[in-house]
Amino acid sequence: MKVYINGQFFSKEDAKVSVYDHGLLYGDGVFEGIRVYHNKVFKLKEHVDRLYESAQTIMLKIPFSKEEMTAAVVEAVRQNPYEDAYIRLVVTRGVGSLGLDPNKCAKPQIIIIVDKITLYSSETYRRGMEIITVATRRNLQEALNPRIKSLNYLNNIMAKMEAIHAGFEEAIMLNQNGFVAECTGDNIFIVKEESLVTPSLENGFLDGITRRTVMDLAVGKGLRVVEKTLSRHDLYVADECFLTGTAAGVVPVVKIDGRTIGSGEPGKHTLELSRAYDQLTQKEGVPVPRTAKV
Ligand code: PMP
Question: How far apart are CA 236 and CA 231, in angstroms?
Answer without folding.
Answer: 9
